[in-house]
Design a protein that fits this description.
Elements: H1 2-25, H2 36-43, E1 53-59, H3 62-68, E2 73-78, E3 81-84, H4 85-102, E4 106-112, E5 115-120, H5 124-139, E6 151-157, H6 166-187
Antiparallel strand pairs: 1-5, 1-6, 2-3, 4-5
C-alpha cells in the first residue's frame, strides 16, 4: 500500500509538471496571452458550425512611442521597428485589457509584435455588450508613463454567413481592423509612422 501510494504521488507530480510545461509552451512570455502555437492548435479544433466571434486586434501608436524612447531598446522587432521599454509596456497593458475583458468568454492570442486575436464563444448580441465594455476600458485607461491606450480591432461573427474556413474569417476580421486603424490615424492627423498626414 505504501509503495502504491508513493507511485500515485509520483504520477501526480509528473502530471502536474507536464501540465505546467504544456502551459508554458502555449503561453507568450511577455504578455501572458496564448501564443501562435496555441492559436494554430485551437483553430484546428473549432467547428465551423459553432457560434463564436473572431476578433483581430492591433495596438496603435507604437512607432510614435518608439521614437520618443529610442535609446532604451529591448532588441525585439515589431514590424521592422525595434521595441523600446515603452512599446513593450504598451503591448503588455493592451494585452492585460484584452485578457481582462475577453478571458471569461474564450482566449486571447498574441500573434506577434502588437498583433492579437481573440476567439470568443458568445453570440453577436452578447459580444456587442462585451465590446462596449472593452471600448470603455481602453478609453478611460490611464497611466503616468503612457498617456493613451488605443487598440484598433475588427471582428467577425461565425453566423454572418457560410464561411469556408477559419482563414477566411481571420482575413475578413483583419480587413475590418485595418479599416479602423486607418480611421484612427486619419482622425489623429498622422500616418502610421507618426508623421503629419
Amino acid at each position: 500500500v505504501l509503495r502504491l501510494s508513493k507511485v500515485k504521488k509520483k504520477n501526480k507530480e509528473q502530471s502536474v509538471m507536464l501540465s505546467s510545461i504544456l502551459e508554458m509552451s502555449n503561453t507568450d512570455k511577455m504578455t501572458g496571452c496564448f501564443n501562435r502555437k496555441a492559436y494554430d492548435e485551437d483553430i484546428s479544433e473549432i467547428r465551423m458550425d459553432s457560434q463564436f466571434i473572431y476578433v483581430s486586434m492591433d495596438v496603435n501608436g507604437l512607432k510614435i512611442i518608439n521614437d520618443r524612447q529610442g535609446s532604451s531598446r529591448t532588441g525585439t522587432l515589431t514590424r521592422g521597428v525595434r521595441e523600446t521599454k515603452g512599446t513593450c509596456r504598451l503591448i503588455c497593458v493592451a494585452a492585460s485589457c484584452m485578457k481582462c475583458r475577453f478571458d471569461r468568454y474564450g482566449k486571447v492570442y498574441r500573434m506577434g509584435g502588437d498583433e492579437f486575436a481573440a476567439i470568443l464563444f458568445v453570440k453577436r448580441e452578447q459580444f456587442e455588450w462585451i465590446r462596449r465594455q472593452f471600448d470603455g476600458d481602453i478609453k478611460y485607461w490611464s497611466c503616468n508613463r503612457i498617456k493613451e491606450l488605443s487598440i484598433s480591432y475588427g471582428y467577425v461573427s461565425s453566423s454572418e454567413c457560410q464561411w469556408g474556413s477559419m482563414k477566411e474569417i481571420s482575413d475578413v476580421a483583419d480587413i475590418r481592423m485595418y479599416e479602423e486603424k486607418a480611421m484612427y490615424y486619419k482622425k489623429n492627423g498622422v500616418d502610421r509612422q507618426g508623421q503629419p498626414a
